[in-house]
Design brief:
43% of the residues lie in helices and 13% in strands. With 239 residues, the protein is of the alpha/beta class. The strands form two sheets. A five-stranded mixed beta sheet has the order 1-3-2-4-5, sandwiched between helices. A two-stranded antiparallel sheet has the order 6-7. Helix 8 packs across helix 9. 39% of the residues are buried.
Length: 239
């Protein structure tokens, strides 16, 4: 499947670009690749981030949905980075534990790390990230439970005033808007990170519930300090 290329705005343009009445701030292209296991749910979500935050070009985001297993997603990310010219500045593999074997899941994460690929993995499913917008989930759950749990969380929100009960659908294109309108992205980042820190070993398949999607989202919305530092350095070097 061909890659989807979009541009994302960042706070960094205003924060770090030189300001001049006579000259517009420089726009630095920082390239990010996201390779997803799914072909709809995850790509739709990350494309929605462009619609939400994309007011100008600071970095370039390429999204590719694979419909592949865990290791294949990492392999595709490695392949696309190797072929890219210029190289991507940041590369992410997005995949879930789902029904994949423990060995396959753990191997994918280890392979990504050894090849400089970041992993926004979830155990058991990407939908855990959505659920964190509403409450701090710390007990294990099956991927079959997420649809009902997310639907119930939205319907119980004090902000939900629709007559028709909300029903979560995996491939919906408005999920980002729903999560932010009726839940809290700030809480999702906080709770997902806190839960991830409760695990100290590398038996990732046993880390349930856990999602690293918060790391990628934090980077895309301009709140990753390490990423911001790299972009600042790139902007400074281009002056």
């Amino acid at each position: 499947m061909s890659a989807k290329r979009i541009t994302i705005d960042s706070k960094l343009l205003r924060q770090y670009s030189s300001r001049s009445k006579k000259r517009a701030p420089k726009k630095i292209r920082y390239r990010i690749l996201i390779v997803c296991e799914g072909i709809a749910t995850e790509p739709n979500y990350f494309r929605s981030i462009e619609r939400k935050y994309g007011a100008g070009l600071v970095y370039e985001l390429t999204i590719q949905g694979e419909g592949a297993n865990t290791v294949q997603v990492v392999d595709k990310a490695i392949e696309l980075q190797a072929k890219a010219s210029p190289k991507y500045d940041s590369v992410w593999a997005v995949f879930d534990k789902d029904s994949f074997t423990d060995n396959s899941f753990n191997a994918a994460i280890r392979k990504a790390k050894s090849n400089g690929i970041e992993c926004a993995w979830s155990n058991e499913a990407f939908e855990l990230w959505y659920l964190y917008h509403f409450h701090n989930r710390v007990t294990a759950m099956s991927r079959t439970e997420y649809k009902k749990s997310i639907s119930d969380a939205v319907n119980r929100s004090e902000q939900y005033r629709e007559r028709k009960p909300y029903q979560y659908e995996k491939n919906a294109t408005d999920t980002l808007d729903i999560m932010q309108k009726y839940g809290s992205q700030d809480n999702a980042i906080k709770w997902a990170e806190a839960q991830s820190l409760t695990f100290t070993d590398t038996k990732f398949a046993k880390h349930n519930p856990c999602t690293m999607v918060f790391k990628l989202v934090r980077q895309l919305i301009g709140e990753d300090e390490a990423f911001n530092k790299l972009v600042k350095e790139k902007i400074e070097s281009a002056k």
